[in-house]
Amino acid sequence: RVEPGLRRVLVAKIDIEGNEGRALQGAVRLLREVPPCYLLIELKARFLAKAGSSVKEVADVLASAGYDTAKVHAGQDTYWLEQRDLQRCLARLAAGGKPATTA
Length: 103
Prior knowledge:
Largest sheet: 4 strands, mixed
Helix content: 25-40%
Strand content: 15-25%
């Protein structure tokens, strides 16, 4: 179950010194059901490698969670990602965190 307070997250920041891959694996249900519309994440290859993952593995998880990894706004190792279906994500937030209905 996803905690009610996590159903309406517009932006999430993940910067945990290489453990981003582990954090995303632990958030599979959240990312599948109610992902933040925007994600700011720092990915340093050497830190990720120490924690047992890679930039590609993290990017694959993010892509499968609906993030547009081709449209990355980057500064050094920091990436600003948005949901591919951003309008639907924003509509979900406007509806109080409930999935937007389709017409």
